[in-house]
Structures are given as structure tokens and as C-alpha cells.
Automatic annotation (TrEMBL), chain A:
InterPro entries: ACP-like_sf, PP-bd_ACP. This is Carrier domain-containing protein. Residues 44-99 form the Carrier domain. Residues 1-30 are annotated as: Disordered. Pfam families: PP-binding. It comes from the Bacteria. It comes from Streptomyces hydrogenans.
Length: 109, 375
């Protein structure tokens, strides 16, 4: 899996115009991360660091896993289909942030 | 007439077709334990058995709210046909959720063109505890190999395809299995208590070999995660089906109570009988409201839908089971003919407290949720 920063640095500027958002990549990353963290903290009533493993810490139950998936799709207007449905993509706030940025920038419907 | 939206037209036509095809035949189907295959194929070919599939794949593209009303309409006529809708809808949703573009193009087309499908989670040793599944799905080069045994699979006796969940790697996976593949054996469950004509069967998979592209995406995810999505669809569908059961019960109980005379007055004039009608009314309103909320969550793709689906299913199943018992009480001997609407409702509704997360499993999930939100 590519790291969020390198992938975002190269793809985001070219993709910024179609969505009408000219946010710089770094700000974009921060905004996604903050939205995800807020949702997780509200639902788990726990402070959630961006790199904490959500599964090994038991923060994510079976129902909550699906809520998280739906939240990612709804909040960021992306569809997480077939091959993107991996545990690694949802393992932490950082991983989900990378996924969102990749799906937004990727251009395939 | 004010002009209905195109989608509403689709729903209205679907409801009309269901009324025509099912009519008053459900009693006989229940007694025979068999649905006519031509009826299922016709409903399926019109896209009605999985009506939320987008038009791009040949579906009716109904919203969850509209499909819910359609499900309740069918559920009021025949819970066995409604069970087929729930299963086929779950199969389609699983493909839509987990499948690649190619898999969606192939399988969703099949499911909207008259082919029939069920979904297999349960096993002899894995009912409530799906983590105990022992069915295995393994990839050997360009082949996917399936071994195991599934129990009580709705529609399996009629199905062309089954979406089968099993262990895969360190987690779980789902495969689309044509039932005519060598190694697949379908054995009908004899004499089910309810939804008798829904084609429940036990299915054995013995070294079943399929092209690797039959394995859906998400393979390797924990079993809980993989099945929650399909079950969430199933819960919303079952809940709406229970709304249908309550409507059938209200219709039967209210018309009987209005006409049958005892002690010189209609039964409804006896307050203890009227109370049954009042409680049935409340049960229907509460269940429908909860279902509408879950469907709204589905249509808005809001995270709340996951818990709303469990809530709606749990509430509606309990109301349907108690409501059906009350309806039998109001009709008394007139409702005691096996196969009749309230007798079917009584048996069918009880099973709704068992499937898609039993009462107890729903309570465990909701208890955990309540603790998280309110503590
Ligand atoms: C009509 C019908 C249709 C079905 N269709 C399908 C289908 O299409 N596909 C499919 O995969 N399966 C299907 N099933 C199987 C169904 O999913 C299971 O019956 C259900 O999950 C319950 O499992 P079980 O019957 O093994 O009961 P068990 O798991 O053995 O449970 C027995 C009882 O113990 C309770 N219990 C279990 N664990 C706990 C716990 N931790 N705490 C408290 N109570 C607990 C249960 O709630 C239940 O009351 C169908 C079943 C029926 C009856």
C-alpha cells in the first residue's frame, strides 16, 4: 500500500479542479483525518490516535465496522467497492484517510 | 390523477403484478409447501425479487423505502414469496456491495432476468455464531474450491445460484455458486413450521470447483464484517415483511370482528376484542415507522442505518409474532384452518423472531449499541 502523503502529493493538484475544491493536499489530508477521528471519537467515546489499530484494540465491533464503511462513503462521496474492501484499508484513521484520498483522486467511477 | 414519478410507477406496477400472480393462492402454496416456479420466474424476470438493483443492471432501481412497501405488500399476501424476495435481494446486494464491475454486470443481470438466488451463511454448527463456520473457500490458481455444508437456506430448493459465505484465508469470503455445479447437493428441509413454500434446503458442497472470478471482493475480511452488510439488507427486508404480516392480520381480524356476532352484537363491540384490534393497529404503526426510518437511513446512506435495521427487524418481528397470535385469538375457530391467512401469519411470524439475527442476538447487538450511545 502506498503511503498517503506521496500518493496525494502527486495526484491531488490535477484532480482538484473537477470537484471544485482547490484545497492543498496537506489540508485535504487533515480535513479527512479530522472528520474520521471525530466520528470515531463520538461513537467510541475514546480518544483515537490516527495510527491506532482499530481492530486489535477492539474499538470496532461488527455493526460498527459497517457504520464506519458507510460513514466513509457518505462523508467523502466515494464508493468503496470489491477490491478496496480490505481490513488494511480500515485499520486506522491514517489508512482510511489514504483510501479516501486515493478514491477521490483515482478518477475511476 | 397527479403524475407519479417513474419510480413510483414501477412500484405500483410491481404491486399490481404481485396481487395478480399471488392473489388468493398463498393458502394452497403453504399447504403444498411449494411455490410454482413459473410465478417465481415471472416475478424475477420483472426485477421484482430484487427491486433495488439499479436500472443499469436490469433492475427496477427502487429506493429502499419503495422496495420496503413492495415487500410489505407481498408479505401481506404470502410470506413464502416475500422470503424469496428477501433472499434474492440479499444475494443481489451482496454482489452489488462486494462485486467487481464485471461481477456486477454478470450476476445482477442474472438476478433481474428470472434466475433465482439464495444466500448461505448458516451451518449445522454455526447458527447464531457465524464465526464458527467451517465451510472453506480456497483459491487454487485460477480455480476457487468450496467445501462444506449449509443449513436451512431459503430458496435453495428453487435456486439457480447461491451466494455462499465461508472461511477464506484468515477471514471470510463469499462465492457465487451455480447450483448445477458438480459437487453441489440440495436436500429440501422437510415440513418447515412457517414460510413453508419458500424452498428451504440444506446444501452440501463437496470439492466444488469454480472459476476464480466467482469469488467476490472483500475476501479475507473478518466474517462479521463480511456478513453484516448482507444481513443488514435482510433485516430491513424481513422487518417490512413483518409489516405485511401485520397488515394481513389487521385485515382479517378487523373484518371478522365487524361481521361475526356473538351475544347479540358484533365481536368488535366487545371491548376485550376491540383491544386486540387497537393493539394490532399500534403494532403496525410502530413497525412501519421503524421500517421507514431504517429505509430512510439506507436511502441516505447514513451510518445509523446499520443499527436502525436491527431495531426495525427486532421490533417488527416481535410485533408480528404477538399480533398474529392476537389475530388468531380474534378469529378463533375461523382462524384455525391451517393454511389460512392468520394461521400462516401465526407460524410465519414466529420464524421472523429467529432469522436474520434472533431476538436474543438482536438484543445483544442493541444492548451494546445502547451502552455505547447512552452510558
Ligand atoms: C425459516 C428459516 C429460514 C432460514 N433461511 C436461512 C437462509 O436463507 N440462509 C442462512 O444462512 N440461514 C437461514 N436460516 C438459518 C437461521 O439463520 C438460523 O436458524 C439462525 O441464525 C439461528 O441459528 P440456529 O437455528 O442454529 O439457533 P442457535 O444459534 O442454536 O440458537 C438457539 C437459541 O439460542 C439463542 N442464543 C444463541 N446464542 C446466544 C447468545 N450468545 N446469547 C443468548 N441467546 C443465544 C438463540 O437466540 C436461539 O434462541 C433460516 C432459518 C429459518 C428457521
Amino acid at each position: 500500500m502506498s503511503t498517503p502523503t506521496t500518493e496525494q502529493d502527486t495526484t491531488a493538484p490535477a484532480q482538484a479542479t473537477p470537484t471544485g475544491q482547490d484545497a492543498a493536499p496537506a489540508e485535504d489530508t487533515t480535513a479527512v483525518r479530522e472528520t474520521l477521528t471525530a466520528f470515531l471519537e463520538q461513537r467510541t467515546k475514546t480518544a483515537v490516535a490516527a495510527d491506532v489499530d482499530l481492530f486489535s484494540t477492539g474499538l470496532v465491533t461488527s455493526l460498527f465496522a459497517m457504520e464506519l464503511l458507510v460513514h466513509v462513503e457518505q462523508s467523502f462521496g466515494v464508493q468503496v467497492g470489491g477490491s478496496d474492501l480490505t481490513l488494511d484499508n480500515f485499520r486506522s484513521v491514517d489508512a482510511m484517510t489514504a483510501l479516501v484520498l486515493r478514491l477521490r483522486g483515482g478518477g475511476d467511477e | 390523477m397527479n403524475e407519479p414519478t417513474p419510480v413510483s410507477t414501477a412500484r405500483a406496477e410491481a404491486e399490481q403484478l404481485a396481487t395478480e400472480l399471488i392473489g388468493d393462492r398463498a393458502d394452497g402454496w403453504d399447504l403444498a409447501g411449494e411455490l410454482p416456479l413459473d410465478v417465481l420466474r415471472e416475478l424475477g424476470g420483472k426485477g421484482m425479487l430484487c427491486a433495488q438493483v439499479p436500472a443499469a443492471y436490469g433492475g427496477l432501481g427502487l429506493s429502499s423505502a419503495e422496495n420496503g412497501e413492495l415487500t410489505a405488500h407481498v408479505g401481506a399476501l404470502c410470506s413464502s414469496v416475500r422470503s424469496v424476495m428477501t433472499s434474492q435481494g440479499m444475494a443481489a446486494w451482496t454482489v452489488e456491495r462486494l462485486g467487481s464491475d464485471e461481477q456486477k454486470a454478470v450476476h445482477l443481470r442474472e438476478l433481474t432476468s428470472g434466475r433465482l438466488a439464495g444466500v448461505a451463511f448458516s451451518e449445522p454448527g454455526a447458527g447464531s455464531d457465524l464465526g464458527a463456520m467451517t465451510t472453506t473457500i480456497r483459491v487454487e490458481g485460477d480455480t476457487v474450491v468450496l467445501d462444506g455444508r449449509k443449513s436451512w437456506i431459503t430458496v435453495a430448493a428453487y435456486a439457480d445460484l447461491l451466494v455462499v459465505f465461508g472461511r477464506h484465508g484468515s477471514g471470510a469470503g463469499a462465492v457465487v455458486v451455480p447450483t448445477d455445479t458438480p459437487g453441489v447437493t440440495v436436500e429440501r428441509v422437510p415440513a418447515p413450521l412457517g414460510c413453508r413454500a419458500a424452498g428451504h434446503a440444506d446444501v452440501t458442497f463437496d470439492d466444488v470447483r469454480l472459476p476464480a472470478d466467482r469469488l467476490l471482493g472483500g475476501a479475507g475480511l473478518p466474517v462479521d464484517w463480511l456478513v453484516t452488510s448482507a444481513l443488514t439488507f435482510g433485516r430491513v427486508s424481513v422487518a417490512w415483511g413483518c409489516v405485511g404480516i401485520l397488515r394481513a392480520c389487521l385485515r382479517a381480524a378487523a373484518s371478522h370482528a365487524a361481521t361475526r356476532q356473538q351475544f347479540g352484537v358484533p365481536l368488535a363491540a366487545h371491548q376485550l376484542v376491540a383491544r386486540h384490534l387497537a393493539e394490532l393497529h399500534v403494532a403496525h404503526e410502530a413497525s412501519a415507522g421503524c421500517c421507514e426510518r431504517a429505509s430512510r437511513g439506507w436511502d441516505e446512506n447514513s451510518p445509523e442505518l446499520v443499527v436502525s435495521a436491527v431495531t426495525a427487524k427486532h421490533l417488527a418481528a416481535g410485533h408480528a409474532a404477538r399480533g398474529a397470535a392476537a389475530a388468531v385469538q380474534v378469529l378463533a375457530s375461523a382462524g384455525a384452518h391451517d393454511g389460512g391467512p392468520v394461521a400462516r401469519a401465526y407460524r410465519d411470524a414466529k420464524l421472523m423472531e429467529i432469522i436474520e439475527g434472533s431476538n436474543e442476538i438482536s438484543q445483544l447487538l442493541l444492548g451494546k449499541h445502547a451502552l455505547g450511545v447512552w452510558s
